[in-house]
Amino acid sequence: RKWLSSCPYQGRWREHVERSALALKLLTFDPTGAIIAAPTTSLPEVIGGTRNWDYRYTWVRDAAFTVYAFLRIGFREEAAGFMNWIESYASKHLRPNEPVPVLFTIHGDCEISEQSLDNWEGYRGSRPVRIGNAAVSQFQFDVYGEFMDAFYLYNKYVSPISYDPWVRIRRRLDWICENWQRPDAGLWEMRNREEHFVFSKVMNWVALDRGVRLADQRALPANRAKWIQERDRIYEEVMARGWNEKRRAFTQFYGSEDLDASLLVMPLVFFMAPNDPRMLSTIDAILKSPSQGGLVSDSLVYRYPPDPRIDGLPGEEGTFNMCSFWLVEALTRASQTDPKKLDQAMLLFERMLGYANHLGLYAEQTGAQGEALGNFPQAFTHLALISAAFNLDRRLGTRNRT
């Protein structure tokens, strides 16, 4: 209660925002500032299923979303703590010409092996129970975008970036320029293949864009012309190869016809305007039901079509709560030119609030009957809730004043 009393957020849905902030605070390992994805392992994505993973680690990907969420509601110290941890441990493990590790233990180790505890029954018979996470060995190219966006926000709202971390960042951005055309495992940590995932390309663009902005703002030495050149090449390629004319939408990877809810983030990271015709068309496609080729069931959003062929894993999964909040924010931002989308965003947000438990907490996923699925509570969901609430409240305030 004392910690929450310092929160200056006075907007709508304050109780839900504060509950989410408190969840993030309790998921933080205070000695290092690391925030774990969830405090549990192997809570199933469907009861009796095998999609059971260990989330008791810190993902670099969470960096930008964590910093943004804490800053939006006034918790600069927590944002700074997590940012310091990310910079310290990521730089410690950076190797020339090697990808940055995507996840760490709370103590900063990335030697994490995945094991199945075959003698454990699992929650309601959901096997296997896993400890460790094999995603640590994957190449996930999007993490550079989240990493750089976090630095950009930290520099803008907390403290100017210093020279030593900038030197490490500069080398990494030069590396991105030479490697962004590589396929990767993507945001969803595909275990069956690597592809040219559109979300990863967008976040490569974010990394170079934020690097250029930081260099300009602080007059820092940089390979500016090269960064701009490659940033623009990425943009052109995404528009040419990430867009599916048949679907009238951006799709999961180059050549795919499958939608992906992660692409709702495109306007959130300023890759493109929220009311760009291509973005609006993508949102409209996602808003359709799965039977119509979309991703939305009621207010709930699947991360991609619920089809095992996509990720190669057996069984089913629920809808992803953070994707549902991303949809709310994408609609909110698009409402600047279409006021009806603001009402739609508010309706979806209010429905999503009904899926929280009595403490205002969310698991990673929600099932068709409203049941919580996956590890609990999940940080990413609460980060997305805070961002969606903040932007929706601000947009509603603007509409009411006009």
Supply the key terms.
mainly alpha; 3-stranded antiparallel β-sheet; 13 strands; 45% helix; globular
What's the short version?
The chain is mainly α.
Task: Characterise the protein shown here.
With 402 residues, this protein is mainly alpha-helical. The protein has one domain: Glycosyltransferase (Alpha/alpha barrel), CATH 1.50.10.10. It contains 12 helices and 13 strands. It has helices spanning 14-26, 62-72, 76-93, 143-157, 163-179, 198-218, 224-242, 277-287, 308-311, 321-334, 339-353, 379-401, and strands at residues 28-29, 34-35, 58-59, 103-104, 115-116, 130-131, 243-244, 249-250, 296-297, 300-301, 319-320, 365-366, 372-373. A 3-stranded antiparallel β-sheet has the order 11-12-13. A hairpin with a 4-residue loop joins strand 7 (243-244) and strand 8 (249-250). The longest helix has 23 residues, at 379-401. The radius of gyration is 20 Å and the shape is globular.
